[in-house]
Amino acid sequence: MQTLSEVSAVAGRGLQTDRYLERTGFYSARPTDPGAREVTLFESEVLQALQQEHGIQFAASEHRRNVTTRDIRLADLVGQRFRVGDVLLEYVKDCPPCEHLEQVTGKPVLVPLLNRGGIRARVLEGGTLRAGDAITVVAAAATSA
User: Fold this and answer.
1) What gap in Å lies between CA 138 and CA 135, rounded to an integer?
2) pLDDT in tens, 80-139
3) CA neighbours closer than 13 Å in the CB half-sphere of residue 32
4) Would you list the DSSP string of 71-118?
5) Domain 6-140 maps to which CATH number in 1.20.1250.20, 3.40.50.2000, 3.40.30.10, 2.40.33.20?
6) Cα–Cα distance list, 113 to 2, 47, 68, 118 (Å)
7) In what order do the strands lie in the sheet containing 6-10?
């Protein structure tokens, strides 16, 4: 994992240099919802909760999600389209922790992160994501009938 101050988001594909877009490094080839691996988001407040509730020091560089957010409940984005800076994203599904996360960090985070492991989103309109970009809800996600 590498901290970036900005990264290009490509509509329908994900983030430049991400292991899923590039198909490099460790990634799961298991099928999932369309767009579910384009962008993942994680709340910084959960990192604080892990420390306070479980005594687990867990850094933003360890959670293996693309974007660490602050001051927004990701659960509020369920069923929404939202912007991060000028990039339009759409909620796809939650992003529960996996056993691989425990293996690479050596920390018992699987159970404490249940129901708060972040969310997955697809890129509808590309652009540049920048550290500090605001997250704003645009509209309810389109539903297929």
Assistant:
1) 10
2) 999 999 999 999 999 888 888 888 899 999 999 999 999 999 999 999 999 999 999 998
3) 17
4) S--GGGGTTEEEEETTEEEEEEEE----HHHHHHH-S--TTTTTT-S-
5) 2.40.33.20
6) 21, 10, 15, 9
7) 14-15, 6-10, 127-130
Residue 70 has which token pair? Answer: 């602050």
- State the residue for tokens 């994992």: 1
Q: How far apart are CA 108 and CA 63, in angstroms?
A: 12
Q: How many CB atoms lie within 10 A of CB 103?
A: 9
Contact call for residues 12 and 123 (beta carbons, < 8 A): yes
